[in-house]
Structures are given as structure tokens and as C-alpha cells.
Design goal:
This protein is an alpha+beta fold. Helices cover 35% and strands 16% of the residues. The chain is elongated, with a radius of gyration of 18 Å.
Length: 101
């Protein structure tokens, strides 16, 4: 987050270990990483296309709706400016992994 002078910019990552406030030198590293992610991200339209194709492929493969009655759900702690958030269904824990490992 950038603020007017005399306040320095900060990074506020929300992690599984809790929230952090990062100031000064490390902010540049986070800003660069974010810019790289934005450059590689699909547009909202392209993202929807990929999601629809994956859902269509899964439906053809499964020949029906997926049973989510036993799925563990995780909800994002952040919301977009329009109020939307993401929920992830952990359907197959054996295929989960820690991205930091």
C-alpha cells in the first residue's frame, strides 16, 4: 500500500500464520512479484474461458455432477472491490500440496 508523505509504503500479506506488516526495503520485492503475476495473469474473459473449458471437460469425464457433500471448503480472507470472494473445495486431499514446500 502506498501512502502520502511522510508515510512509507507497506505490504500487508495475509498468511496461514497470521497477518504481517512489511516496510521499506522488502516492499520493492513484493511490488516486483505482484507486477510479474499481473503480467502473466489471464484477463477475466480468458480466465472464464479456461474455467468453462475445464468444467466442461470434467462433466464429460464424470458424466454428471460431482458430489461435493464431503468436500472441505476454504474461503478466501479477501474480497474484490465488487464484494466477490473465492471458495475452494478440497476434493482430493492426496493431491493437495504446500506451495511453500
Amino acid at each position: 500500500m502506498d501512502f502520502a508523505e511522510p508515510y512509507p509504503p507497506i505490504v500487508y500479506p495475509d498468511t496461514m500464520a497470521g497477518e504481517l506488516f512489511i516496510e521499506k526495503a522488502d516492499v520493492g520485492r513484493f511490488r516486483l512479484t505482484f507486477q510479474q503475476l499481473v503480467a502473466q495473469a489471464l484477463s477475466p474473459t480468458e480466465s472464464l474461458k479456461v474455467i468453462r473449458e475445464a468444467a466442461s471437460t470434467a462433466q464429460r469425464r464424470d458424466r454428471g455432477a460431482m458430489d461435493l457433500s464431503r468436500a472441505k471448503w476454504r474461503k478466501s480472507s479477501r474480497r474484490s472491490s465488487s464484494g466477490n470472494c473465492v471458495e475452494i473445495a478440497e476434493i482430493c486431499p492426496e493431491l493437495s500440496r504446500d506451495a511453500n514446500a
